[in-house]
């Protein structure tokens, strides 16, 4: 048996990017979840995946919505990362966002945004494996420093020479 605390510590030793996945709820309000379990999956067809916890209050809304936007966070978006990591309906209070042409709620800053339609869902233990079919890719006009998660902390990716 693997001890959960040690498992989390070992997995947290692997630096990863930080994403916020957003969609609209049935009332047209923004909902979202912070996820470091994200990956590109396939180029043809263009697919990506992320892994929300089944216990998340946002996961069922994402699943029902059928579409979502994945934001690759910049280092300046710690407020967004922490807000969407919490529970409750008002996670986006004070966070600026707008609707895309595809009807997804987009946060105003990110190093990149990937708009998806839900393609497949798979069981992954206590997490779902959500695969999105990429419908739109958005890059900002200016380059931004990405956010990383490592050992329980969020920070900026150091510049690589």
Automatic annotation (TrEMBL):
Q: Which residues cross the membrane?
A: none
Q: What are the alphabetically sorted keywords of the record? A: Oxidoreductase
Classification via InterPro entries? Flavin_Rdtase-like_dom (IPR002563), NADH-dep_flavin_reductase (IPR050268), Split_barrel_FMN-bd (IPR012349)
Query: Which GO terms of the molecular function aspect are on file?
Result: FMN binding; riboflavin reductase (NADPH) activity
Record SUPFAM superfamilies: FMN-binding split barrel (SSF50475)
Q: Does the keyword DNA-binding apply?
A: no
In the UniProt record, does the keyword S-adenosyl-L-methionine occur? no
Q: What is this protein called?
A: NADH-FMN oxidoreductase RutF, flavin reductase (DIM6/NTAB) family
Domain Flavin reductase like, first and last residues per copy: 11-156
Gene3D superfamilies documented for this protein = Electron Transport, Fmn-binding Protein, Chain A
Family named by the database record: Belongs to the non-flavoprotein flavin reductase family.
């Amino acid at each position: 048996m693997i001890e959960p605390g040690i498992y989390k510590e070992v997995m947290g030793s692997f630096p990863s990017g930080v994403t916020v996945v957003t969609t609209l709820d049935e009332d047209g309000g923004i909902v979202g979840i912070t996820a470091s379990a994200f990956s590109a999956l396939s180029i043809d067809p263009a697919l990506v995946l992320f892994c929300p916890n089944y216990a998340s209050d946002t996961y069922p809304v994402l699943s029902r919505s059928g579409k979502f936007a994945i934001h690759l966070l910049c280092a300046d978006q710690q407020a967004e990362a922490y807000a969407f990591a919490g529970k409750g309906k008002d996670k986006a209070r004070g966070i600026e966002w707008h609707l895309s042409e595809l009807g997804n709620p987009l946060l105003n800053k990110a190093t990149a945004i990937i708009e998806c339609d839900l393609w497949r869902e798979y069981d992954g233990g206590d997490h779902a494996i959500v695969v999105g079919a990429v419908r739109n890719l958005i890059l900002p006009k200016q380059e931004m420093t990405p956010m990383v998660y490592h050992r329980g902390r969020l920070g900026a990716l150091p510049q690589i020479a």
